[in-house]
Amino acid sequence: MAKRQIKLGAFIPTTSQHAAGWRHPESRPQDHLSIDYAIELAKTAERGLFDAYFLADGLAVNWSHGASKHNKKVGYSDKVVGFEPVTLFAAISAVTQNIGFIATASTTYEEPYLLARKYASLDHISKGRAAWNVVTTISAETARNFGFSAHPDAKVRYERADEFIEVVQKLWDSWEDGAFLYDKENGHFFEASKQHEPLHSGKYFNVQGALNVPRPPQGYPVIVQAGQSEDGRELAAKYAEVIFTAQQSLSDAQAFYRDVKGRLAKYGRHPDDLKVMPGVSVFVAKTEQEAKEKYELLNRLIHPDVGLGLLSGLAGDIDLSNYDLDAPFPLEDIEIKSSRQQMMFEIAAKHHFSIRQLYEYIASARGHWTLIGTPEQVVDQLQEWFENEAADGFNVLPPTTPAGLNDFVDFIVPELQRRGLFRTEYEGTTLRENLGLKRPENQYVITQQNTAVAS
Predict the structure, then answer these.
(1) What InterPro entries does the annotation carry (predicted)?
(2) Given 89, 224, 263, 366, which is the most exposed site by the fewest CB atoms within 10 A?
(3) ∠428-237-116 over CA atoms, to 5°?
(4) Arithmetic mean of pLDDT over the chain
(5) How many of the other CB atoms lie within 10 Å of CB of 447?
């Protein structure tokens, strides 16, 4: 049996992760819509043997990271516009060989047939390296871009998401493996008996016809999810194969890991069918002091309006502009409505943070774990989580690009390899093979087999 090793995702938007990362002397914000720059970052991650390149996505201009929403004169933040990820990854896949691609798409504002089609296409184009990060879309601003009078509440969004994934998997199974014969002699392009229509009629969707793309090389693109709420955890237990999480302590990470893995059995799944990958932002250098200086430099570059906008976006669209930035965070003035809000407030209370201190603390990774130190110090902590039921791997959020990504590849990866915690070469050619995930069987074939046995 192969030794268990850390899995790594690289969450690398072209404008950096830290709220002020684009202002770093080595950052190249002017290239954020350059395909050549995106390819450069992907190749760096592949040089570091990352499992996948991950991109978040939204369907509205994101003003929540800067107060310019209110004055509409000056934009302070980089988190406003960017590439549509499936399109970007299709291009990058042509010039990479092993790294996978995790593209985000919404179950609230997209349709199952179109989504199934584009992800199946990406899986074919990339030769089995596609993954879908399932989101229900938290931003209420999105509603007005799609003719909605109001943004659906969380319960409705998760209920819709459950049915959405069910329909998409039926569509991916529209064609059995080997359905396409390409038999020139007899004139048979495909075997009609190996095509299946989903004939789905549900609460939210009515999808009758088969997908017009053959079954993806991986069976299904890998299903990824990031919810931490009760509904999010249950959806992950039912469908997800990778889950991104945000924890600040070993004990919290262990509790989440055990809770989500413990839910899989009721869906006929094994704990190894789901990889838990907490987010982590790493500031690393040859000395601890140098690493701290990297962290402090970026925090000095945070525009206060961006800091306030960041808190508003993460803590529930709250307006902190009338508060003293250096006064204690006003915990008593805000009603907690989400798991991410709860985490923000727990951080503020634990450290007795002011508003400014809280936004500096979360600026590097939006509430994910932040590590600062030498390669040995950082890997000590990653290893502790990995070996103590807190993580199967990590979704790495480099604070700056390209510098932060280069630092991780050049400092952290060699130390992980030295300890035998990380691969020295890719195990396979598909994302599933590299993550150690099984390829799903076609559900219609399974039904036929079960029917045959029963009869």
Answers:
(1) Diverse_substr_monoxygenases, Luciferase-like_dom, Luciferase-like_sf, NTA_MOA
(2) 263
(3) 60
(4) 92
(5) 11
Residue 70's pLDDT is what?
47
187 sits in the region (left: phi over 0; alpha: psi -120 to 50; else beta) called: left
Bridge partners, 354 (sequence order): 328
| pTM of structure | 0.92
Task: Tell me the two tokens of residue 342.
Answer: 């709860």
- In 3-state terms the chain splits into helix, strand, coil percentages (rounded to 5) of 45, 15, 45
Cα–Cα distance, 228 to 367 (Å, whole number): 13
Residue 287 assigned as binding residue: no
Decide if 29 contacts 15 (C-beta within 8 A). yes
Is 374 annotated as ligand-binding?
no
- Residues 426, 98 contacting (CB under 8 angstroms): yes
Q: Where are the domains of the chain?
A: 7-298+367-451
> Please, are residues 246 and 368 in contact by the beta-carbon 8 Å criterion?
yes
Beta bridge partners of 106: 135
Does residue 264 register a pLDDT over 80? yes
Instruction: Dump pLDDT digits (tens) for 111-137.
Output: 999 999 999 999 999 999 999 999 999
Grouping H, G, I as helix, E, B as strand and the rest as coil, residue 325 is coil
The domain defined by 7-298+367-451 folds into TIM Barrel (3.20.20)
